[in-house]
Structures are given as C-alpha cells and as structure tokens.
C-alpha cells in the first residue's frame, strides 16, 4: 500500500520535470523574440545604409557637371586611381591629369617570380594604374598570374631579357605610346614625376634615360635597369631596325643591363641625362634610407656617372623610382605620397628639368 511518504519521490520528480519543460519553452520563446527583433534591427541598418547610398548619389548628382570630365576619363581607361583619394580628397589634380593625357607611357615590368602574385597585385593597385598600359614579363608560366613568358614570346633570342622585352613591345605595342618604360617588380614608380621629366624630352629623338652608370674600364655606358629605363618612340624604332644582327644585342658577356646599354649604343640610341638641374638623381638605385645614410655599395659608387652625393642631397624632390620595394612597402609609399599631409606645409612646384640640347 502506497503511503503519503512513499509518494514523495514521485512528486519531486514530477515537479522537476515540470520546471525543465517550462524553462525550455521559455528559452524557445525568448529565442524567437530575439531572432525576430534581430531581423528588424538588421533591416533597420540596411535601410540606413541604403539611405546613405541615396544621399551620396544625390550629392554626386548635384555635382555631376563638375566631376563629369574626370569620370569620363576613368571610364575610358578603366583607371580607378582617382577613387583612391584623388577625387574626393580636395587635391587639385588638373596639372597631373593634363600631363597624363599628353604623354603616353607604356610600362613593362620584369618579375623574378618570388612572391609574384602579391607583387604584381601591388603594382596594379598602386603606381601601375597610372601607366597607359602595363605588361608583366617572366621567364616561365605562372598559372594564377597573367604574365608574358619571354621564352615563348616569339621574338629573337638575346642573352639580355631587357632586349627581348623591348623586342616584344615593339612587335605588339609600338604605336600605343610615346615612351616605353621598363623596370623590376620591386621598384616603386611615381608616374607623375616620370611624366614631368619627359615634358622636357622629345620622343622623336632616339634616346633612353635612367640612372647612368659606366663599366670601370670605361667601355660601356648603361643605366641601372632595375630601377628604370625609359626609351623614346624613335629610340624603340631605331633599336628594332638595327639590333637583330648586332652581336652586342644578341650574345654578350656581361649580359643584362650592361648588354642593353651596349646594344643601344651600337644601334644609335643615345644615353641622356636624367638628373635634375641641381644634379640630384631621379632614379634611385637604393632605398631612401640607404641613400640618406650614404651607404651605397662600393662597386656602385665606382660605376656611377651622376656624381652621387650622400644624404638627402643625392635624391631629387621629383624622384621617379625607388628601389627595393616589396609589395608590403609599395602600399606604404602610396599612402605617404598621396594621402599623408603634414599640416601647415604647402610645398611649391619647382622647375628642375634640364631641357634637351
């Protein structure tokens, strides 16, 4: 016979079960309320964001006539550089844009293959956007990066990859630019300063420019092609016309940039001066931190033809190229050049070009 005392455990279990069921139902209902509330909150934020877009569009529409010439230019060239701060930062880009329209520059870059995906991406996202065209050359195929394999490019072989690159450029793009600029993948280029330099030059004269060097025995003048070699349209045509059967242009030791210099000299393309009117270099073969300390390599100082000074006096305020820039540093340089502003300082433009003779 069940007594009242014997029923106590069953009553306790029944009460516990009820508490558990009740708590579970409360949690489910609470979750549903929070989910529903979350939906409303998300919709509210989306509405706010949408309203913000409409507000921005309204501002742009009100200023459409003012920005139309720039946006048309972007549309034609597919260049997004203006969107990185130029259009809305308050900078006056009129002079730089006018130079860009007047002076067409094709850029080609030699990539060693080290960290090629990040390096080429950094080039396209920073200084490469301001070229009229960018070509990436390599010596082998890369599956994930769009490059031109010079070993399969269909141009006459040379022991100098620079010569093969310029032969490819002539074959496919000789009419697409006034100047043809080549460099390495770890070089940052200030395209505004390159075009400023070229305003004082004539693309119809067979010439090339860069940081001038000479072999210690004085036999060959050349440029440090790692940090840039810019060739005129007339120079490209004369080079292609005369280089095919020149020994210096096909088989030579030493090869590389020294062979390029010997080839240009043999084909009638002359080496011009690239320093500014104060004798300072525009094409920097070393990182600024190295040049500021005067720590350039001894061999380089022996071959230098630009009377290399030490410290900041060795570098032009209109420097064109900076060497030793990995993808990480390219983004930093882009910020320092185009976004960082020291308050209260207003640098004035200077005329430091040396006109052609």
Could you describe the 3D structure shown?
β1, α4 and β2 form a beta-alpha-beta unit. The chain starts with 7 loop residues before the first helix and ends in a 19-residue tail after the last helix. By secondary structure, the chain is of the alpha/beta class. The strands form three sheets. It has a seven-stranded mixed sheet. Strands 5-12-11 form a three-stranded mixed sheet, with no helix packed on it.
Structural class from helices and strands?
alpha/beta
Output the number of helix runs.
12
The Rg value, from CA coordinates, equals: 31 Å
Low-confidence stretches: 1-5, 7-13, 23-88
Shape: globular
What integer is the average pLDDT? 78
Largest sheet: 7 strands, mixed
Order of helices and strands: HHHEHEEHEEHEEEEHHHEEHHEH
Bin the helical content.
Answer: 40-55%
Distance between the termini: 125 Å
**Which strands sit side by side, in order, in the main sheet?**
3-2-1-4-9-6-10
Strand residue content: 5-15%
How many distinct beta strands? 12
Keywords:
seven-stranded mixed beta sheet, 357 residues, disordered N terminus, alpha/beta, 12 strands, single chain, 12% strand
Write a brief structural summary.
With 357 residues, the protein is an alpha/beta fold.
